[in-house]
Each structure stands twice: as structure tokens, then as C-alpha cells.
């Protein structure tokens, strides 16, 4: 069982997701009506371990939702960013210490990155580039380093998390260019494209495929494999579950994330594949991709649609769906069977597709 201290720390993660993750609708869509008690959303089919965590976290998430202010001005965005960042960063260090990872702040390709290496790290010539989530308007590479530590521990790999400029100060052209600059910098270090993996969660799981499409279209070699956790690939919210699961999702609320979408990209750009990757031309190629998602996500359809878009043109994609799981559950359902199964699949996928080399 988790102690009270870890309950508070995990609640910070869920609050950040609940207040600024990746749902979206048309610009003038009315707000989704308030949901019933969040505890009613825990399915009987999840593991006892996951249920125990939910029962502790959801009341805290509900309370923090009530105090969250939807930003309207640049000052509002800055205030929300600072408040949530402070909460997250205050709880990052204990998890990093617990997992025993080594961290460093670096610059790669002229962009700030946060490096994470697991204990007893062995350089096999592979590396993972991560893009963090936060609804495009929150978090940083440092504040979200706990997710890097979990991935590094599960896979044994070096991870470079891109400290991109969040919106509204960072729009999609700048952000995708920053990710590409880090990728170029990793290539300049001597890594081979087939030895580089890229992954993202939430907003990051949008920015990663968008950046890959952009670098592919510029003639650059693509990375060896991609992992997307709970991606949003269509800002236009055209999927079935954006309607059918809108009131069943315990984390995402449409009206609370519209400002983040508008801050990141003008609605006129929402069908640009570098903003909404579902509109990319996958006949031109895309790396093998593993997509993980839960059945409690209003963005479930985005994962299904992206998987189908790649498979239908002969690409390589895997869709890994978890019963009763919410948005980016891998980050906070600690030591549950669901989390362990998800990371086992990710490790298998990296091992299958990333090519170790002697640099």
C-alpha cells in the first residue's frame, strides 16, 4: 500500500493531467457538464492495486479541479504554469532518489535537455528521446523527470527529455523545430537513426509524431522506433470516443484544455499534420510505433485512428489497450499489474526495433 506521502505525490501528477492534458473540440464548443463523483468511474475490472490508488487519489484530484482557473491571458498562463510546476518539481527529487537514477542538465542541438540514466547503465549505442506532456502549456523536462526515471529503470536506456518552450510562448513551429534540433544533435553525437527511439506522453505523444513527419518531409532519416502513451493526434476531435467517453473520463475535461490547444496552434492549422499528425501521409513512411491507451480515455479513438492510418498503408504499428485505465496511467499507478505490463511491452518493443551499436 502507498503511504500518505506517496499518495500526495501521485496526486500531483494526476492533478496536472486533469487540469491540462490533451482533449480538444471545435473552438466554440460549449463546456462539458460537470461529472458525477470521480470515484464512480473506477471500473470493477481493474486490479485491486490500481483500485486502491484510485480511491486515495480521486478525491484529491476532484478538490484540485475545483480550484483550477482556466487561463485567458498570458499572465494567467504564466501563473498556472508556475503553480503547477512548483508542485511537480517539489515531488520529483524523491522519486529520482528512490530509483537511483543519474541526472544531468545538458544542451543538445542548442536545446536544453534533461538526461536520465538508470543505475548500472551500460551504453549499447541506443538512446531514447522523450517529449513530456502537460497539455502544451505545463510542465518541463525537469518537473516530469519521474516518468523518465521509470522508463530508464524499466529499459536500462539513456533518456534525453526535451525541455521545449511551452505554449503560449512556444507555438508548434518552434516546438517541433526544437525536437528536431535535439534529434539532429543526437545524430551528431554518433548515434545511428535505427538506434534512436522517440517517445512521448499526452501532449508529447502529439509532438513526437508531428516532429517525425516534419523531419521526414525535410529528407532526414527517421528514428528506429516510436512509443506513444495516450496520444492526441487530431485537434479537431473527430473520433467517436471524444463524444461517447466525454463523461466517463476521470482525468480529461474538454473545457479545461481548449485554452492549451488554442495557445499552441491557431484553429486554421488544426489539419496541418505537424499539428494534428493523423493528417500525415503515411505512405511516405513512418517508424514502427507502439501506442498505449486505456479504455477510460476520451482520446481512445485517436489511438485507434492513428494505428489504423499506419497499418492501412502497410506500416508497422501496435495498439496496446488497457482495461479501465485512464490517461497516461503508466506515470502514477505505481507498482500495479497494469503499469508493470505496460512497461514490459515497451521494453519488448524497444528490444525488437532499436539496433544496438558500438559508437
Secondary-structure topology with pairs:
Layout (H helix, E strand, L loop, with lengths): L3 H17 L27 H20 L6 H17 L1 H8 L2 E7 L2 E7 L9 E5 L13 H11 L3 E4 L9 H17 L7 E6 L2 H14 L7 E5 L11 H4 L9 H11 L24 E6 L5 H12 L5 E6 L14 H17 L6
Parallel strand pairs: 3-4, 3-5, 5-6, 6-7, 7-8
Antiparallel strand pairs: 1-2, 2-4
Helix pairs in contact: 1-2, 4-5, 6-7
Task: List the keywords.
Rossmann fold; 8 strands; 359 residues; globular; 11 helices; eight-stranded mixed beta sheet; single chain; alpha/beta
How many beta-strand elements?
A: 8
**Helix-strand pattern, N to C?**
HHHHEEEHEHEHEHHEHEH
CATH superfamily: Alpha/Beta hydrolase fold, catalytic domain
Largest sheet: 8 strands, mixed
Instruction: Kindly report the spatial arrangement of strands forming the biggest sheet.
Output: 1-2-4-3-5-6-7-8
| Overall outline | globular
Please indicate the percent range of residues in DSSP E strands (runs of 2 or more): 5-15%
Number of domains: 1
Structural class: alpha/beta
Q: Segments where pLDDT lies below 50 for 5+ residues?
A: 1-36
CATH class: Alpha Beta
- The chain-level mean pLDDT equals 86
